[in-house]
Amino acid sequence: MSSRLPGFYRLGIAERRRRLLEVKAVAEGRFASIDPGALPLDIADGMIENVIGEYALPFAVAVNFVIDGEDALVPMAIEEPSVVAAASNAARMARAAGGFTTTASTPVMIGQIQVTHVANVEAGAAALRDAAASLIDDARRLVPRLAERGGGPVGLDVRVLARAGADGGVLVVHLHVDCRDAMGANLVNTLCEALAERVASTAQGRAGLRILTNLTDGRTVTVRCTISDDALDGADVREAIAAASRFAELDPYRAATHNKGIMNGVDAVLVATGQDWRAVEAGAHAYAARSGRYSPLAVWRAVEGGLCGELTLPMAVGTVGGALHNHPAARLALELAGIDHADRLGALAGAAGLATNLAALRALATEGIQRGHMSLHARAVARSAGATGELVEQVAAELAACGDVKPDRAREVLARLQSPLPSVADKENQ
Ligand code: NAD
Questions:
Q1: What is the pTM of this model?
Q2: What values do phi and psi take at 221, rounded to 5?
């Protein structure tokens, strides 16, 4: 299946679906999962509390992606205009040089068990280190199916957090768990709760919190791509993007916005595929600040004839568990992207993030972000002013041309375009 679908953006929704059927992206009938009302209300009612309805988002696919040598359609659910277009454009630029390549760490999540009121933290930590192998064995026995799948608890370490203070001596135990294709929060939390009392008594302290950390630095994905000067429209653009990357490396204020551009792509994929995007967001920003200074998650370097980009971020995602079982759109998203394991999903989200980062930097380094963004925003404003059909494009084009993309102006333009043309008789009477 090729993800290169020229002109896909110009098609209507029904034609886009037909095109995806032609390239055998999914089986006939599967689009019912993203039709309005596809999530049954009783299922929604079982997912969270106090449900009174459902909240819809546009569901799209970004095209042109090649990830680790394979074409991939990238499902995205997002309310912000221009993210899908930006991802698709950047993926087309990367495609010319082979697309995105990725490396995933083993899917190891970390559970924390806090121990407070430890009289002698050094002795407590030493006792826990001595008991580590046996604690891991205990934990492993609690998840036999995960162990059969090649995962399960793989390590345990201890850190001293305080020697004295309001909570006395404080230790934290980190339990490392290979969660295979699960995101793993529930798995890890269950193990931490089960081990907590033994951990506390071994350290001769009191069990405190027992829950995973979202700083999943043991579970990361790295994505790389090369973009040729030709694809970038010249060496000047290459140098400007490399300079924009250095700006983010020097300044946390810029790094925050640089990373927001990355999370535009990452989150859109995570939402579409039913992931806990708050967990990945928390992990990404904690990771970005791990040196003590908030830094960009992706950097770009000028190389001979082009540009190299590299992104690394924690990626706690799952293709089993969580909301996936219940959410028809999330299951369709995984199907569209051809995903059957968590590593590939992490690669897809990471590639989308590096792509949206590149597109934003390219726009900033050339015409500025607003022009492209505004023409898409103009369509949304035109629609909200009541334009339908061909009038959407006409109103949007006028708004974008005059640079005044506001609802009042849109209503004015729409009223003028909708008012009947004066007849010859009217003109003669004037
Ligand atoms: P889960 O509880 O559904 O567990 C996954 C299940 O899948 C396990 O029972 C496992 O045995 C099974 N499984 C089947 N095939 C597997 C495979 N190939 N690899 C691994 N496991 C396999 O889900 P989870 O992933 O443990 O937890 C995810 C949920 O926890 C998310 O909904 C998340 O929102 C939520 N959560 C997050 C946080 C946090 O991030 N701080 C805290 C609490 C809960």
A1: 0.89
A2: -125, 140
Name all contacts of 338-342 with Cβ < 8 Å and 24+ positions apart: 338/1, 338/70, 338/72, 338/73, 339/273, 341/181, 342/107, 342/179, 342/180, 342/181, 342/182, 342/183, 342/317, 342/318
Instruction: Measure CA of the first residue to CA of the last residue in the chain; give whole Å.
Output: 63
Predicted confidence (pLDDT) per residue in 260-294, tens digit? 999 999 999 999 999 999 999 999 999 999 999 99
Task: Determine which residue's CA is closest to atom 14 belonging to ligand 1.
Answer: 320
Token pair of 236 as six digits: 């000047």
User: Is residue 314 in contact with ligand 1, taking CB distance under 6 Å?
Assistant: no
Model confidence over 15-37: pLDDT tens digits?
999 999 999 999 999 999 999 99
Angle (deg, nearest 10), helices 342-365 and 369-384: 110
Sign of CA dihedral 65, 71, 73, 78: negative
Residue minimizing CA distance to atom 17 of ligand 1: 181
pLDDT band at 322 (very low <50, low <70, confident <90, very high): confident
List all residues 6 or more positions away from 44 whose beta carbon is below 8 Å from its beta carbon. 51, 53, 54
Neighbours of 285 (CB within 10 A): 19
Predicted confidence at residue 429, as pLDDT, reads 45
Q: In this predicted structure, what is the pLDDT of residue 421?
A: 60
Of 187, 275, 277, the residue with max ligand 1 atoms within 8 A of its CB, to mutate for a pocket test, comes to 187
CB of 276 sitting under 6 A from ligand 1: yes
